[in-house]
Amino acid sequence: MIKKIIAPRTRFYNSIKHFKFFMVFTLLFSSVLTVNAQLCSCTIQEVQQNTVTPCNVTIGKTVTVSTTFEIRNAINQANSSGGNMTILIADGSYQIASSTSYPYITGNNIVIKSLSGKRDQVILSGGGMKPTSSTENVLGIAGNHITIADLTIQDCGNHGIQVSGHHLFVHNVHFKNTYEQMLKGATDANRIDSAIVQCSLFEYPNGIGPNYYIGGLDIHKGTNWTVRDNMFKNIKSPSGSVAEHAIHFWNQSSDNLIERNVIINCDRGIGFGLGNSPSQGGIIRNNMIYNDGLGVFSDVGIGLENSPILKSITIQSSWLIKMPLNIDLLEQQMLILEII
Is 159 within 8 Å of 184 (Cβ atoms)? Predict the structure, then answer.
C-alpha cells in the first residue's frame, strides 16, 4: 500500500510499546539482509559482533606500514604521486592526528586499510575526545575514490573523517569517541558525490557523548550517497541541547539512499534537511530505530525539514520503536510512505 501525503506540518507518533519487538526484529534483520559492493559484504549481526569480512580491494602500488611516521609518509607519497596506492597498516595503535596537524588526502584512488582485516586491531586516533584550539580530524579527505576499511578511528577534537572529495568508500570502520560528528561532509565543498558508507559501527561506548554537537554522519551538499548496513549507538547529548542525528543530510543534499541501518539510543535517528537548509529527494527504507527513552534529549526517529515538494522522499518499511516522536515533517513537502 502506498500513501502520498502533502503536509505543512505532520507528526506520526509511536504505537509500539515493548522492547521484545526490537529484539525479534534485530534477529530477523541481521540474519537475512546482506550487502555486496566492491567485493565487500556484511550483515548487521556481523557489524555488531565485529566479524565483518575484510574488504578485498587494492589499487596500484601496495605499501605496508607499521609506525605513525610511516603512515603519514605513505599518505604524503600517495598525494605527491597523484594517488593509485594501497596502504596496509600493521596491527597497532597510532596517533596520527593532533591539534597542530593531521593527515590530509589529496590524491585519487587510494586505499587505506588494516593488513590483518581486523577493525579493532588497527586504531587511528587524535589527541583525545576533547575540545581543541584548532582543527583536529583523524583523516581529512579531498581526493576522489578513497577507500577506508577494516580499522578503528577514534579520540579526536573534531571529526573522525572530514570529506570533500567524491566517491568515498567506507567499509567496516569503527568510529568512536569523537568530540564532534564522526563523519563530516565539509560545508565548504561545492558538492560531495556518490559515497558509500557501509558495514560500520558508530558509537560512544560509555553510553553518552561529550557534548551536544555530535552526530554519526553529518553531510552537507551530499548527492547520491548510499548509507547501509551500519549500526549507530548512544549518540546522545549530556546537556545543553539535543544531539545531531545518527544520519543527517542537509544544506543542498539530494537523492541519497539510507537503508538497512540499526540506530539504538541516539537522540535523533535519520534527518533530511534542517531549518532553512534543505535536502531534496532520497529514500529511507528498511531501517530500525530504537530508543529506550532514558536520554535527556530523546527526540525524533526520522526528521524531514524543508525538503521541497519538487522531489519527493520515500520512507519504506522502517521500524521506529519507542521514539518520543517517530516522523516529524516541517515545511510543505511530499512524503511517500510505502508500507509493506
Answer: yes
DSSP 52: P
* Cα distances (Å, whole numbers) of residue 198 to 69, 141, 202: 29, 17, 11
Say what the pLDDT of residue 137 is. Answer: 98
Would you state the cell numbers that stand for residue 329, as one nine-digit string? 515533517
How does residue 134 score in pLDDT terms, banded at 50, 70 and 90? very high
Contact between 161 and 124 (Cβ < 8 Å) = no
Per-residue pLDDT, 317: 56
55: DSSP letter? P
Considering the entire predicted model, what is its pTM?
Answer: 0.87
CA–CA distance, 175 with 152 (Å, rounded to integer) = 6
Alpha-carbon distance of 320 to 287, in angstroms, equals: 8
> CB 241: neighbour CB atoms within 10 A?
12
DSSP state of 158: S
Cα angle value 306/272/19 (rounded, 5°): 125
Phi and psi angles of residue 264, each rounded to the nearest 5 degrees, phi first:
-125, 125
What does the block give as the cell for 310?
519538487
- Alpha-carbon gap, residue 258 to 316, rounded angstroms: 10
Q: Across the strands, what pairs with 139?
A: 161
Place 185 in a pLDDT band, splitting at 50, 70 and 90. Answer: very high
How many whole angstroms separate alpha carbon 75 and alpha carbon 130?
A: 26
Which class for 70: exposed (0-12), middle (13-18), buried (19 or more C-beta within 10 A)?
A: middle
